[in-house]
Amino acid sequence: MDSLPALPEGFRFHAVTSDDPRVVALHRAFSLEMQSLYGGDGPSRLRTDDHQEPSGGFVLVTEGDEPVACGGFRPLVRRGEWGEEDDSRAELKGVYLEPSRRGRGLGRALLGELERRIVAAGYEEAWLETGTEQPAAIGLYERADYLPILPYGEFRHDPRSVCFRRRLVGLAPDVDLEALEAIEPDALEDGLVDVRRRCHEAVTEIAAGIASGMTETEGRQHAADVLRNRGLRKGWHKIVVRFGENTTRSFHQASKPDVVLGENDIFFVDVGPIFNGCEGDVGATFTVGHDPEMLQARQDVVELWRRTRQAWLAGSLTGIALYEFAQRQATAMGWVLNLDLTGHRISEFPHASHYDGSLDIVPLTPNDRRWILEIQIRHRSRPFGAFYEDLLLADEKLQNDAPALGSARR
Fold first, then answer.
1. Do 132 and 184 have their domain in common?
2. Which of 51, 95, 284, 399 is deepest in the core (most CB within 10 A)?
3. What would the pLDDT profile of 188-202 be if each residue is shown by its tens digit?
């Protein structure tokens, strides 16, 4: 995390419980303000057990003896838009500043203190929900580097809901960044480029053999047969073939069974073979039929991947900044980005001997021929998504030699 913003002079933080009478009074004022903005009954009563240490917490701010602001956090264990259960997230709740104390830096200081406590409690991300009628709150979170996400939880169907998340934990400060990008010379020279080409050719052949009426299990068996015939059956990760609604699912989540590819449908293929001791990893999306939004998803996931790569080439962006860029671009394009699938190392097998984490927490600019850039998007309301991943290459000709980019299939 960055250094914490200073608490303005004359204010103090206090660790309290959410049923502290001073918090209850502030929350009552908060509820009245929300009623005036949105109607209805305002926010529900704060549940004391949600914010208890060690999994939660609540902070009161006083000026002298007067309570003027408060905020808390609680665990957010949930199955998200991408289906996977994740207990690394905390949710900010009940953040409120008495109106006369706003505009003095107190909100940012309180947010920083809550983030510090969230990290100390073992969480990696902070999530929150605010609303369209609270532009000052939206501005606070945007200035604090929170990224917009699809509305979730009880407000997920409310058009006035505005939700954000921020990753608070990156790599440990003592990580050897040079060792993190280590690679054998043969793999760097041409090994990874060779297996990448073979992966693209295999994915293209696999996609050509998939047709409407096939089950996902049949598609996966077909993919295994293609890889075996090409001498690529040994893999460092499982073969992934997703049809229809399963294209919204993350890598580690099992597919919904018995899904059959429809006449107007979408699917993706993801392979990770080992060839001559080097790892490959290529994934691409294809369509059958004429569904315009599915066709657009197939095109846009590649376009988003290309924009993110261009940002890498042009701006010397870190891994962290790359996925912040991708998130903003995905939102602008009208898609939801899967922030649980955010790139990884690749090298001679096994890359885990160098680094087994994700690219989106790496505070260095990724070097050529070492990283897989992964992009998975989903439709905001319909149950389908799209996926594309490839090796980041600085050489434009090599990068564009990628037959698995796919084409609309009729």
1. no
2. 284
3. 889 999 999 999 999
